[in-house]
């Protein structure tokens, strides 16, 4: 989930859904409430840990952090050197996810079919939107945190891609994270000169506010999703099917990158000197070249990964019962 949440177009919620722990994830997040806070401040740590399903959440969050800072680094390398094949694998994983959800979905009422169609349209429309300009206003950053965390809780909606559309992907997931790395490195060396670096302090403030917004969004969205899963489960699954299907346009493997340019037509770069991604120009693959068929092979690999996740999830559920 940590690696998936970092990649624009891929939703960590899909991983949770296919692996079979999505509902437990949402219901566990719901337990982070006022009652949990009271248990914690009264030093009833064992009761607090049991109440919030701490073992599950702790292992999940630890795995996400390890994945975000390790597996995602490998993904960054693979996307740079084998971009088409990585996107093809993700495309296959989403196709496999759609199959996984649809095969067990049995409420094909007129209402749910309409929900699926509407959600597909919304998903496709999001992929076609033009990104906004970067905005480091702290209130807007807080809202970005709330909206961006949707990729973790809503299968089919990529939080990273939404941050691109909001114009703050580079600011929040590249520049501010790198500022944190640099600050930790300085602290290890007992170098506090960064306190006089106004840009570094600005980025650290942005990261803190973004993190608070993400935590707020995670808890509030989980309560909303917990409610609709409990009272409108089939309708929620219908919407998820639509969102995931609509997201196929975002992860379509055959596309060109479009970078941000200034008024003179020069490509804009971020703090690391990398061009800033604006959007994608998608095209139909050339069926006369080998690369296309290797891409199709990786789509099959992606589908196989999801089917394996499903099998593994069912196997672990049986052994735990």
From TrEMBL:
Keyword field: Membrane, Transmembrane, Transmembrane helix
InterPro entries xrefs: VCA0040-like
Coiled-coil regions, chain positions: none
Parts of the chain that traverse the membrane: 6-27, 48-69, 84-102, 114-132, 138-154, 201-228, 235-254, 293-312
Pfam entry (one): VCA0040-like
Keyword Transferase: no
Keyword Membrane: yes
UniProt protein name: DUF368 domain-containing protein
Organism: Aquimarina algiphila
């Amino acid at each position: 989930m940590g690696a998936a949440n970092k990649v624009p177009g891929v939703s960590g919620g899909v991983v949770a859904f296919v692996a079979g722990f999505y509902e437990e994830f949402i219901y566990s997040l719901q337990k982070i409430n006022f009652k949990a806070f009271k248990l914690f401040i009264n030093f009833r740590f064992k009761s607090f840990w049991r109440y919030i399903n701490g073992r599950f959440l702790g292992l999940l969050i630890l795995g996400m952090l390890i994945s975000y800072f390790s597996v995602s680094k490998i993904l960054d390398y693979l996307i740079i050197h084998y971009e088409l094949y990585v996107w093809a694998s993700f495309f296959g994983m989403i196709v496999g996810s759609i199959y996984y959800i649809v095969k067990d979905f049995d409420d094909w009422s007129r209402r749910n079919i309409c929900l699926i169609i509407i959600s597909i349209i919304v998903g496709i429309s999001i992929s076609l939107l033009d990104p906004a300009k970067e905005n480091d206003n702290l209130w807007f950053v807080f809202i970005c945190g709330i909206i961006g965390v949707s990729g973790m809780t809503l299968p089919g909606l990529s939080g990273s891609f939404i941050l691109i559309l909001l114009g703050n992907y580079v600011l929040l997931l590249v520049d501010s994270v790198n500022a944190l790395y640099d600050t930790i490195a300085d602290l290890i060396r007992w170098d506090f000169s960064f306190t006089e670096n106004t840009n570094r302090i600005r980025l650290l403030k942005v990261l803190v506010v973004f993190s608070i917004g993400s935590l707020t969004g995670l808890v509030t969205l989980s309560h909303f999703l917990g409610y609709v899963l409990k009272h409108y489960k089939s309708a929620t699954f219908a919407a998820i099917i639509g969102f995931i299907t609509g997201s196929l346009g975002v992860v379509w493997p055959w596309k060109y990158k479009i970078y941000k340019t200034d008024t003179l037509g020069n490509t804009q770069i971020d703090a690391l000197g990398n061009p800033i991604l604006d959007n994608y120009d998608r095209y139909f693959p050339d069926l006369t070249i080998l690369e296309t068929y290797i891409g199709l092979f990786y789509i099959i690999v992606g589908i196989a990964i999801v089917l394996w996740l499903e099998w593994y999830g069912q196997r672990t559920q049986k052994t735990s019962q």
